[in-house]
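Extended Data, panel c. Modelled sequence:
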Amino acid sequence: MHTGVARDLSLQHGPISDLFPRVVDEAGREVWRLSVEQLSFFEQHGYVVGPRLLEGVQIEQLRAELSLMTQPGHPGQEFWYEYHSNESREPGRVLFHALGAWRIGVGMHDLLWHPALTTAASQLLGGSVRFWHDQLFCKPAEHGGVVAWHQDYSYWTRTRPMAHLTCWIGLDDSTVENGCVYYVPGSHRWDLLPITGLAGDMGAIRGVLTEGQWEQFRNPVPVQLRAGECVFHHPLTVHGSFENRTKNPRRAVVVNMVRDGVRSESDSPLLEGVPVIPRGQALGGQFFPLLYGVPGGAVD
């Protein structure tokens, strides 16, 4: 068992290491900006492959942190919002899923301020970028479980307006064989669907789709990425991923963001263990830091 005292990194709003590059002005962000073609693709399809976010040393750091975080009794375990050593409902399948890694690992923390991430996110959100929450997903070799079809915002209606964005970042190559993410192009224009479960039956979504949606759904697109590459998607874009039956793990970190100004729609804690943000009040404070304020935008 790992022992030791961990500090809560949510108290630090900004990078605390040199793992990722820093920029000092807007001109320095140009290298990471999405092209007109990428922005148009996102608008049309509801997802887009973004810039390469991670290189060798960065990938190894995040893999090492994830490995520690999957061990029972690891330092900082009290800082998780959610922790599922196996969220899969399928016998013999495993899906590790946890929220709150940014509070525990230096690399997971500093990733949030990576300018390659925040620059593209600002373009897609249309403004300043604020942190919502992170997620870790790990499908172990040979028996990794599914992430069933869903829309992210169906789990996030406790915040309004719907000005959210997800960035999925591979820590391994993600392929059709090991359970890469599939998208239903254009589904970001659908209404909000009922929740049918995150780690269970891949076919459950059929029961909540119209005939027209079902016809569109029948041709999902796999997004295969190399380790360190990422894909962004809209909060209503239907997506999911199948089992990992290969001899290698499929690990990923997900960063969920909102446009600055998104408000609480609940008088209950937005995340487990986080102080209440009263209904109608904008997200902010210790647990929802500003990641990038566009010129003339908000300052935390």
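The chain has a mean pLDDT of 94. This feature is highlighted in the accompanying rendering.
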